Amino acid sequence: MTKPDVSSFLRRSLLANATFSGLAGLFFMCAASPIAPSIGLNQPMMLIIVGGSLVLYALGLARNALRPAVNLIETRVAIGLDVLWVVGSAVVVLAGLLNTTGSWAAAVLADFVLAFAICQFIGLRRVERVRLLDETGEEVTSQPW
Questions:
Q1: Nearest-CA neighbor of 74 among 3, 124, 129?
Q2: Cα separation of 26 and 40, whole Å?
Q3: Which residues contact 83 (CB under 8 A, 6 or more apart)?
Q4: What is this structure's pTM?
Q5: Does 111 map to a domain?
Q6: Is residue 1 assigned to a domain?
Q7: Residue 143 confidence (pLDDT)
């Protein structure tokens, strides 16, 4: 009997994050000049750098999601980077580094990133639970996931 793929939720979460991050990155890079002044930046270079970083991040997420066995260490790193993005966004908003439009945009993007981090965490816990079960042969009941 074939076991169901317990990593499917984690894989879908990683791929959703990769899609969102990649598209956002491409958008930031391609439209940096008109976006920058509308969010309170004097120069578009910051958006180009952030956009390029997001595209590279998206490629890493997709690579992890599409490999035969999801690398859980890379998944933890991705969750940590997503949380760091949310914290950084809060700092940018609270420090007033962007105008009102930019602050709202940063906050909305941070909400999406937080949702991806939560989904990836849930998927990670499910995979870890099954791997622990496979190693011990005992049912794991202490984990709510």
A1: 124
A2: 20
A3: 114, 117
A4: 0.87
A5: yes
A6: no
A7: 47
Q: How far apart are the first and last CA of the chain?
A: 24
Residue 142: inside a domain: no
| Section 74-85 average pLDDT | 98
Count the domains in the chain: 1
Take residue 58 and report the two structure tokens written for it.
């998206």
CA distance 39 to 47: 10
Q: Residue 38 sits in which domain range?
A: 8-136
pLDDT attached to residue 136:
62
Does residue 144 sit within a domain? no
Torsion of CA 91, 81, 141, 9, to 10 degrees: 120
Q: What is the pLDDT of residues 104-123, one digit of tens each?
A: 999 999 999 999 999 999 99
